[in-house]
Design a protein that fits this description.
By secondary structure, this protein is an alpha+beta fold. Helices cover 39% and strands 26% of the residues.
Length: 327
């Protein structure tokens, strides 16, 4: 019988079967392999299949033979991603509000192709799409363009939007383009933020990427390396609450032992924590003094107290007074 084109691809079809159908709990037997090949128009004998399996092993594929009268067979033991890793990725996609519901389902489906058919079913059972997912389908291309600008050291222009009372996005500054020098993309609080240098204001600005549209790469090189480009993105995320930049200050905070985890989660493990009084501790951290920072403090119900500097304490008291005046 003359070898068909499919006949020449027999090892690839065997590999495809192992990738799609096999795992430790679901090995494929030799008869199943031969039957599968027959459905592809490929004739095969055990001896040739054994040879193909050895060749795939020599190429680096971790193919295991599991003995058993009824459940014996071959399976692909190692994959690019283990099932536990794929579950983590699925959870990350589901938790990301900036990823649209449509793209969430598409990404999870693609992640499922990295597992066997049976394992992919476990991923699909986890799928729950949050109703407050973003609906900006262009965000993926926006992120890709920003990365290109970072690699090519170029400025960008875009239109920036805010939500209106009609629950629609409306262009800020009457649609006038923003021109900035991008430096970092930070994923914080389930959103992507662009950290960029604003040449007009001579300062670092933050923009939520899902509110960016009509982005264009410019020929002009980036500016602000001495200001924004030298900032540590990790410190930015710790310092700036809700990515709202304010006046940078070193503040002293005092807190009880049960708030240690909150402080470390917020500012990281590198901060210095000292015993203060009885069961109290204190730390000095750099923050952006802003309503967002004061709101974070207020949300801790007095368990974290702002001790200084005096002018920041007064600003906080003024903030609390303004809130009380509303009631």
């Amino acid at each position: 019988m003359p070898r068909s084109d499919n006949q020449k691809r027999k090892p690839l079809y065997i590999l495809k079967l192992l990738i799609q159908q096999s795992d430790e709990k679901h090995p494929v037997s030799m008869p199943e392999i031969i039957e599968y090949l027959d459905r592809q128009g490929i004739s095969a004998e055990r001896k040739s299949v054994y040879s193909d399996l050895r060749m795939l092993e020599e190429l680096g594929y971790d193919i295991i033979y599991q003995r058993g009268r009824t459940d014996g067979g071959y399976y692909l033991a190692s994959r690019e991603f283990e099932l536990a890793e794929l579950k983590l990725l699925v959870d990350a996609v589901l938790a990301s509000k900036f990823i649209t519901a449509k793209k969430t389902k598409e990404l999870i489906e693609k992640l499922g192709h990295l597992a066997s058919v049976n394992e992919a079913g476990q991923l699909r059972r986890q799928v729950y799409v949050d109703r407050i997912k973003n609906d900006n389908e262009s965000i993926y291309y926006t992120v890709d363009e920003i990365h290109t600008a970072l690699q090519e050291n170029r400025q960008i222009s875009f239109t920036y939007y805010n939500w209106g009372i009609d629950k629609q996005l409306h262009a800020r500054r009457d649609g006038k383009s923003y021109v900035v020098s991008p430096y970092y993309l930070i994923w914080k609080g389930e959103y992507y933020y662009l950290v960029a240098f604003d040449s007009g204001q001579r300062m670092t600005r933050y923009y939520r990427v899902d509110k960016i549209k009509e982005l264009k790469l410019l020929d002009a090189g980036r500016e602000g390396m001495e200001i924004t480009g030298r900032e540590n993105p990790v410190l930015i995320a710790e310092r700036d609450f809700s990515m709202y930049a304010g006046r940078e200050e070193v503040v002293t905070m005092e807190f009880s032992r049960d708030m240690l985890g909150v402080i470390i989660d917020r500012f990281g493990k590198d901060i210095t924590i000292r015993p203060a009084d009885d069961d109290l501790f204190s730390t000095h951290v750099t923050v952006s003094v802003s309503p967002q920072f004061f709101g974070w403090l207020t949300g801790l119900s007095g368990k974290v107290r702002l001790k200084g500097p005096a002018d920041v304490r007064q600003e906080y008291l003024d903030y609390l007074g303004t809130v009380l005046d509303q009631y």
